[in-house]
Design goal:
This protein has six helices and six strands, in the order βααββαβαβαβα. The protein has a single domain, classed as Rossmann fold (3-Layer(aba) Sandwich), CATH 3.40.50.850. The protein is an alpha/beta fold. Helix content is about 30%, strand content about 20%.
Length: about 180
């Protein structure tokens, strides 16, 4: 039987502050509660850099334009939203690029725990979720994407990815339907 983990990706203050859907984080909190109640590990994936951003090449369009200190030590905007904050014992994975795997120890942690099924949620659908789906599929993980626990600033992009692209490599469902499979 596959062992699952819920990955909650990029739900950090600086990122949540740009989300136009005020119900997103409460929905994500319901997914986290369902996972915890069912004993499914919750892993929090965040973007983070050392002081001075030595990991960022200025040519990188996604991260090269970040202001000094952003997502670095002491940046309050790098904190995980309190509504979904990690509990004691829950893993926080720090990544250096868009995919949850890039520049992180996520794969090592998953393999060590025997996890082979990832349930994905995050901000944004066309960023961390897309990049993680593609890389995780290449790494032979079973995948589920919680469509209503993902957000993209472009609703049409979100729709296309969740309805057309992701189903090629993942099961796509809602938080409510996924939670029913846990009990």
């Amino acid at each position: 039987m596959p062992k699952s983990a819920l990955l909650l990706m990029d739900v950090q203050q600086n990122i949540v502050g740009r989300v136009s859907d005020p119900e997103l984080v409460p929905r994500m909190a319901r997914a986290v509660a369902a996972a915890r109640d069912a004993g499914v590990p919750v892993m929090h994936v965040v973007v983070g850099f050392r002081a001075g951003h030595p990991e960022i090449n200025p040519a990188n369009r996604s991260f090269g334009a970040l202001p000094p200190g952003a997502f670095g030590p002491g940046d309050p905007g790098a904190a995980i939203d309190p509504a979904v904050a990690p509990r004691d014992g829950e893993t926080v994975v720090v990544k250096k690029r868009v995919s949850a795997f890039a520049g992180s120890d996520l794969e090592m942690l998953l393999r060590a725990a025997g996890i082979d099924h990832l349930v994905l949620s995050g901000i944004s659908t066309s960023g961390v979720v897309l990049s993680t789906v593609r890389q995780a599929a290449d790494l032979d993980y079973r995948l589920t994407v919680l469509s209503d626990a993902c957000f993209d600033p472009d609703p049409e992009t979100h729709r296309f990815l969740t309805e057309r692209l992701f189903p090629r490599q993942a099961d796509v469902t809602t938080i409510g339907d996924w939670a029913k499979t846990l009990g």
